[in-house]
Amino acid sequence: MAASARLFRQLAVRATAATGATTLLAANCDGTKPPGTRELNRLPTKTGEAPKLQRLPSKDADLPEPPSTPASTASTRLHGLVETRDVEGLRSLLRDGHVNLAARNGDGLTALLVAARLREHEAAEIIRLLTDAGASVDDIDRLGRGALHLAALAGNPATTRVLLQRGADPRRVDARRGATPAHYAAAFARVDAMAMLCAHDAKAVRDARDRLGRSPLHWSALSAHRPWASQGSLRVADELLAAGASPRARDRTGATPAHAAARLGADAWLDQLAKRDTGLLDERDNRGVSPLDMLETRYRKTRLRSRFAFDNWSLQIRLPRPFSRD
Length: 326
Hints:
The chain is an all-alpha fold. The protein has helices spanning 2-14, 21-26, 77-83, 87-96, 111-117, 122-132, 147-154, 157-165, 181-187, 191-200, 202-207, 216-223, 230-242, 257-264, 267-276, 291-318; strands at residues 40-43, 52-55. It is built from 16 helices and two strands.
């Protein structure tokens, strides 16, 4: 509630008398979510020209989907013991020797990669056993993700710590997006995993960029509007900023994390950044659009939709009832 109020209060400063500052301050101050993300973005124009409109992306489709519990695709006894978290059985198998640690299951995963996806507390001990037996922390899946990517995605700080201790590279990028483990931790609001990555190598986290030039802070902003990530994303942003991440980092389109948050309606996340640096809201991307412009566009669309709905409702109750000729 307070976050939306503060953001739209800044809009009121820019509002003209025709817009009505009082109405502007009242918009969305109750904490309700602004309308969907298919918005028209008003671009700056020369004096006397009609405003140009550009459709904004409907969603953050370039981010990976939230992880789900994987179905068992064990193809070896080793994979089966890892998936069932049978630590004693695994220890016995490794003690006997003659185990192919590089074998892959139906999903193309080695036993170490399977262990990295686990969220249970046994996962860290399983990774210790596998690496002590000679498993490589440099194994990757079909998408080019290493064990550290999968551990960050799962949000297991214990496995993240063990993998870092065993030499997993926090700068490794995946094949599809060029994303590091820190990007994955940011996208899924994995606070503890992010804290572990920042503590291990803050510079690697600060300097991380995907193929579109987006930092982990961008990825956090892109997920912050999701209900399941809203609170965690605030804490992830705190971890990143404490590690020295720049809130004014720009991607290839010139957009900052504040642009992503404003576009998708992550008002609380945006408010948290704006408290640290109020100038963020006026930063312009390569199209000349600022986060404040995006907020203003969302506000105007909200007013238009609300007025249209009210007018139609009023019209319906004023219409005479159909009469019968009988």
